[in-house]
Amino acid sequence: MDPILQFLQNQTLPANPTEAQRVRHRSARYLVINGSLYKRGFSLPYLRCLTPEEGHYVLREIHEGICGNHSGARSLAHKAIRQGYFWPSLHTDAQAFTQKCDKCQRFANIPQLPAEPLTAMVSPWPFAQWGLDLIGPMPEGKGQVKYAVVAVDYFTKWAEAEALATINAARIESFVWQNIVCRFGIPNSIVTDNGRQFDNAKFKQFCSNLKIRLCFASPAHPQSNGQVEAVNKIIKKTLKTKLDKAKGCWPELLPEVLCANGRSHNSSAVAVGVEAKQDMVSRDGPTVGSMGSNDPMDSIKASSDSVGSSRTSSSRKSELDEVLTNLQADPGLRIRMIEYDTNIRDEVRRAYLQKGPCQPRGHSFPQSNISGINRRFIPQWFDEFDWLEYRVSKDAAFCLYCYFFKSNFEQVGSEAFTGAGFKNWKKGRERMKVHVGPVGSVHNKAREAATNLMNQNTHIETAVSKHSEQARMAYRRCLIASIKCTKFLLRQGLSFHGNDESATSSNTGNYL
Asked: Which stretches make up the Integrase catalytic domain (predicted)?
């Protein structure tokens, strides 16, 4: 990461041309904020780039800290990214870290195979259908508790659990009322096994009064309520990794286990529940590494939390506005791009491109003696070469695109249109055509970079804001409807069909 940081800060490149080209291309995905390197995320905020030592600390806190659940390598790397961190060997380091974890090796599943995708069970909306089951008996804890009742929503995969000393209809009814009905509303149905604590007149009457449909799984077939069985397995496995010799402390650790499970990235259910679960949590909470530890690594999270405020502070915005307001049109009066802060160079380039080249068409162009003949700049060249600029004070011509983008590609070729300026009016038109050159010339590369900068993908809200109010409302309605339909189909595990397909079509794509 050091070569990228040096290039963004000082425009310093490695001596090897191949490595220099690689650094240039990779640097487009990074930026420098307050002297620290950040990576631009596709759908996430900026990610703080860490050293391997800092990355190891972050992995340890996420993996086995207060909110850690000894998750696998893939989930561990996903959590680190969601916490706002990145380094090139993130996934490799996460794999190596989990392989060296003693508790993970002791309590990991014996078959080293990826989790089998769960069979999709359709639930129409969040918290409409819950699975209910029991765990136990377990080592007796405080208050003589040795059981746990677990409930899982089939749509969002959100889990609720409570430790119990005894299991009877009254305790189950109280759990459903307090943890499901009062928190998430009355569900449409509840799926349980055939245990007496569920299949009894009291609990059936409770469900009947609330218009809850009570469904029972097939005897000796736990797969009928597989969602809650899968969560039970995760809870028991996580408790094993957190408990040492004090097995009776599991009731106190149960909330931590639920918290860790609620923020986990599960590859077997990624299409049908994790996205909705992340919507509930909205964002991952801070890890123990960011809460009062005396470890010097605390500054990592603190600086990451300050990025948003520093980026959006009014002082920073006013500074950028002042720079853009005072841009000089005359090429001779412009500040060199290297003197601008690296974080605002693209904004400056974009502002100049929006203004267009400096073309003083009404100026009285002076004559110069060239080879014994008085010659001058011809204003008609502005019409033929849209990139052409003219500096009045030096009586010289410049190229708008090369002036701002040539250094991004290579430091070769004539500097006539970017340095001192072009003044040979005797062969002006021919020299300008030579400057443009073939398709792969430096000029055309610079022009392509300018086009890409002006047409680069922006946030959807920025793109929509350029249209009229009526068009914005129409675009936003279509966008929201498309996103809702897509999320619903993903969560239900259904195929995507196009709106112009027949009911008997076997095509499973072209939704959009």
From this structure: 122-304
